[in-house]
Amino acid sequence: MFDTMYEEDGIGLAANQIGEDLNLFVIDISHKDEAEKPRVFINSKIIDKKGECLSVEGCLSIPGIQVELKRSEFITLQYYSLEGEQKKREFNDLMARAIQHEMDHLNGIFIVDRISDLVKMQYKKDLKEIEEDALKESKVREKIQGIVL
Prior knowledge:
The protein is an alpha+beta fold. It has helices at residues 2-7, 93-106, 117-122, 124-148, and strands spanning 12-14, 24-27, 39-50, 53-57, 67-71, 74-80, 86-92.
């Protein structure tokens, strides 16, 4: 997953973005914050939120679209590490934002679901192209699966 994320110049990736039905995501913000190492989060649950912060976000699932979103500035997260160790930790700033973004993916929420209709109208053409590309890709997958079966 890290390789896929790095290939797309992302800082986070949820398992369901690559077709895996797992409650798992990866984040690496070490290029922005050297104190943070690449992390794997399994079965995560936000148990507390504090403050609010407005910042611009993009998404690997919706390339080329950047929107300003309000998110909690501080979160307390309970999760399991790759080694199976249960952890509870407070995160803030970019890491908190990235965690909330990836957890949205796991819950079927995209950044466009969190923006106003007015902002959606600004991106209408881009979103339509992305939707058409996704539909073409799914039809290709269906054809390939039909051939393989």
